[in-house]
Amino acid sequence: MNSDFDCEKYSEILKAIAHPIRLQMIAGIMENECNVTEMVNKLGIPQSTVSQHLSILKSRGIIKPRKDGVKTCYQVVNKKISEIVNILKK
Predict the structure, then answer these.
(1) Model pTM greater than 0.85?
(2) What Å distances lie between residue 6 and 11, 38, 59, CA to CA?
(3) Mind listing the pLDDT tens digit for each residue in 1-49?
(4) Fold (topology level) of 7-89
(5) Rounded distance between C-alpha atoms, residue 90 and residue 86, angstroms
(6) 8 A C-beta contact, residue 63 and residue 57
(7) Helices 20-31, 79-89: inter-axial angle, 10-degree rounding
(8) How far apart are CA 70 and CA 27, in angstroms?
(9) Which residues touch 24 (CB under 8 Å, ≥6 apart)?
(10) List of E strands, 1-90
């Protein structure tokens, strides 16, 4: 077995993107950084639900917030996740 391959870490990351809403959020953020209000409008789900999903994605190092004046926009920072989503979109 390869000791450099952190199975636990990658398993948690894959679980995070396995949820349909989170996968949709990642794909949307990849196309255009957006804030919580924009995600609520695009996804048609409550703000509290968007915030819960964002929290999971942030805790796994998939996205990170970026201040844009008074609003906070999100961007995908894990390039491997971007590659996975691009493969799934093909």
Answers:
(1) yes
(2) 9, 34, 17
(3) 566 778 888 899 999 999 999 999 999 999 999 999 999 999 999 999 9
(4) Arc Repressor Mutant, subunit A (1.10.10)
(5) 7
(6) yes
(7) 100
(8) 24
(9) 43
(10) 63-68, 71-76
